[in-house]
Amino acid sequence: MKTLIRDEQRNPLDICLKQIKHLTGYPLIELSIRDLCANLHYLKPEQMVQVIDSCAFGALAHSSDFRKSGEPYITHPIAVAEILAEYQVGFEALVSAVLHDTVEDTDVTLSDLSERYGHTVAQLVDGVTKLKLSSDKNQNKAATFRKILTATLTDARVMVVKLADRLHNMSTMEAIRPDKRQSTAEETLEFYLPFARVLGLNALADQVELLCYENLDPEQYSFFAGQWSHGALKRKHRISQLTQYFDAKLSQLNIHGSVLPEDHRVDLCRAFFTNKKPLETLLNSYRFTIIVPQVLDCDALAASLKHYLVRPIQIQDHIRRPNPGGTQSLNLFFERQAEHLELVIQTQIMFDVAKRGAILADLAPESSRSILNASLSNLSELVDPECAMTTAQDMFEYFRQKKVWAYTPAGSVIELPKGATYLDFAYAVSPFIGNHALKVRVDSKLMSLADKVVTGQTITVLTDPLAVPNAEWLGFLVTKKARRSLQQWLSTQSYEEQLKGGEEALARALQLSGDLELSDQNWRDILQWQQTQDKSLVYQRIATGDLLPQLVVTRVISAYPEQSLSDKALISGTQGVELFFAKCCNPVFGDPIYGHLTRRGTTVHRRKCHSIQEVLINQSHLILDLEWGVNHNNQSIFQCMLEVKKKMTSEALSSILLALKQLEIGVLSTQSSEQSTFLLLGLTGRERIVRAIKAIRSQLDYPEIRRLYEFNFSVLDTDFDI
Question: Which of the pair, 316 or 310, is modelled with greater confidence?
């Protein structure tokens, strides 16, 4: 075939089609190839030949394969390549897209691809090829995610191809079972999309995300889409008015720019599905992108638009502090009566990079590239052999974390999970800096190592070569890299150094808790708790990070054991320590949590809890990062209060109670006000809260529902107890 295509007397497309004319379903294959070729105008002739050749090669390799819809299988990978051609990606990525399933589903090998199309194409195809290591689907999924992540860190085009593959698959799932469609949507939302956003592949990601919601819950998506279509005429009229206004403003400022109304349905749909805002508010939301020649024009326009009818309620400068994926813009948010408006002001290169991210990484401004590189560097921890994650859920959890960015004095960007401390920052710079850190300087102000990093800060770590770390630090380190580095250092100490370090760490923890002294009875309790007769072993465990000195102190000063948690396995690493759930935020199994060390014991708070924020700022040494353990057989029941922004009739309430009972969610009490209905639920974890909200919204035409932090049991009406 390759020899034929090199025949200059023949058209490469004609040769390709002649080669596969005998295949079943040829008319559909021909149409797919012609559609792809119509979008290859930006390639050099020899590159176009390679792409066309790959279509013939792939069609022959997949000649006996068909999609569940009955179409020839090759029409799928060719459609994936067509999606990528719209973004004008290089020919190697296009060839890889056409051949991305050949190694997984046919007799073609990576060696065959390397010999015919080059090593790069073979690497890209290998990167998106699924792994099948065992009969355990979860293990295979985790291994595949890890492989894709590793390959993408080497060549970002792997994720570009994979995302286009998902886009086409999810747009053609009519023949797939509903449960399979739902699981694919969940997997895409939890892993592929967050990863794609990190790479700045926002245009592709937006298309995929809408399809995720459509396949995740067709009924809820249909309701949203119907309401969106219903208001289309009104929106069109308002968009025209606003476009004229902003065009006039550009002319007034003598700025040669363009005003682009944005179809931001994906953001509104996300807010609708996650119950962030009422539907009426979402349907009255508008977004415009205004593209101007240079950064100075961005600033000038923003300054002028500050007085649009009402002052903006918020201004975000993401030009100097780029968003994830390196996205840069000035964002202005306005509210006028029931209308919500967002303006995104960018230069042309900022606009292009915001849509295509890693595809245009080489053209992006330095500040944008630095954020992208910081994110990729941070992602490398997921594939670090010493910190290997074993489950798909672990990877999903990583991508759910919100991030903060801070800068070294030299201008390098460090990405950390939200809630990370300055000590985490120090270890992210280097293990040496972390091990010898004393304090940090932020904007000429000295800060404790235990304080939290805030996005945009420039942080100088003050070190002393003679300073050494101590085991107490493990109580406020958040990142696994920092904890691993510290534990490695602690493990290298001599036995005598470990004993001394452990004793000093415990003494400091006792001092911070009010100059406590351990009595003989205290020591007997501690030794019994640790199942040893030797104090030295306790000190050694503290020194090597196996036992936090703060938990020893909590064990000593705890009181009121009759009120503590009955199942200590619920919170990892806290067996033998008195634990209490805070009434100010009522955490539920699965919520992100902190532990607050008090004389009463360790109180478990939700990380969002308002009452703990001051402690985080002023007494961060009293805060522990806690993780949930296991809710054995769902034995532990938690209480949660929901406010449904709708007054229910008795019939509607009865229907809700039945629906929740079928989900194994108990309704302990109800109460109504003029505009809302309150439900006190008994359930086993955060996941059940999500199910409850989804069930209630679908039955009541999708009202807004809030989870309340605090609730007063005494005022609740108990007429509807079950």
Answer: 316
Matching residue, tokens 């967002």: 342
Tens digit of pLDDT for each residue in 551-597?
787 777 664 333 344 455 678 766 666 778 888 888 999 888 888 87
List, for residues 692-722, the tens digit of each pLDDT value. Answer: 998 898 888 888 898 988 776 444 443 333 3
Element (H, E) at 681: strand 677-683
Residues with a catalytic annotation lie at: 104-105
For residue 614, what are its two tokens?
């001051």
Please indicate whether residue 57 or residue 718 has the higher confidence score (pLDDT): 57
Measured distance CA(39)–CA(81) in Å, rounded: 10
State both tokens at 545: 């990070």
- DSSP-derived letter for residue 189 is I
What end-to-end distance do the CA atoms of the chain give, in Å? 72
Give me the helix-helix angle, 75-85 and 157-171, nearest 10°. Answer: 120
CA distance 114 to 95: 12
CB atoms inside a 10 Å sphere around CB 483: 18
Structure tokens at 253: 């400022």
- Running DSSP on this structure, what letter comes out for residue 675? S
DSSP symbol at 28: H
Query: b vs e for 256-289, b when ≥16 Cβ sit within 10 Å of the residue's Cβ?
Result: ebebbbeebbbbbbbbbbebeeebebbbbbbbbb
Instruction: State the DSSP code for 443.
Output: T
Q: Rounded to an integer, what distance in angstroms lies between the CA atom of residue 326 and that of residue 303?
A: 24
228: which 2 tokens?
């969106």
Are 148 and 162 in contact by the 8 Å Cβ rule? The answer is yes
Two tokens, residue 275: 């119950």
The domains located in the chain, with CATH, are 2-216 (1.10.3210.10), 225-364 (3.30.460.10), 419-490 (3.10.20.30), 491-631 (no CATH), 637-715 (3.30.70.260)
Per-residue pLDDT of 221-271, as tens digits, reads 999 999 999 989 999 999 999 999 999 999 999 999 999 999 899 999 999
Joined together, the tokens standing for residue 210 give 């809408």
Q: Who's near 602: CB < 8 A, 6+ residues apart? A: 551, 554, 558, 574, 577, 578, 579, 580, 595, 596, 624
Largest interatomic CA distance in the chain: 97
Burial class (CB in 10 A: 0-12, 13-18, 19+), 452: buried
SS3 content of the chain, % helix, strand, coil (to 5): 55, 15, 30
Q: Are 538 and 530 in contact (CB under 8 A)?
A: yes
- In eight-state DSSP terms, residue 404 is E
DSSP 613: H
- Alpha carbon distance 209, 535 (integer Å): 56
Q: How far apart are CA 686 and CA 640, in angstroms?
A: 9
Q: Residue 581's beta-bridge partner residues?
A: 604
* The two structure tokens encoding residue 256: 């040669």
Report the 3 state secondary structure along 666-714. Answer: EEEEEEECCCCEEEEEEECCHHHHHHHHHHHHHHCCCCCEEEECCCCHH
Give the closest residue to 486 by CA, choosing from 416, 412, 428, 535. 428
Going from the C-alpha of 661 to that of each of 68, 668, 705, 721, the distances in angstroms are 37, 11, 19, 12
Residue 99 contacts residue 76 (beta carbons within 8 Å): no
Helices (H), 274-421: 279-283, 295-305, 348-356, 366-379, 392-400
Kindly state the tokens that stand for 89.
């990606």
Q: Compute how many other C-beta atoms are within 10 angstroms of the C-beta atom of residue 663.
A: 13
Q: Which residue has the higher pLDDT, 614 or 441?
A: 441
Q: Residue 136: which residues within 8 A CB-CB, separation 6 or more?
A: none
Find tokens 């903006």 and name the residue. 312
Which run of H or of E encompasses 636? none
DSSP 130: P
* Global model pTM greater than 0.70: yes
Mean pLDDT computed over every residue of the chain: 84
Tokens in use for 434?
A: 């972390």
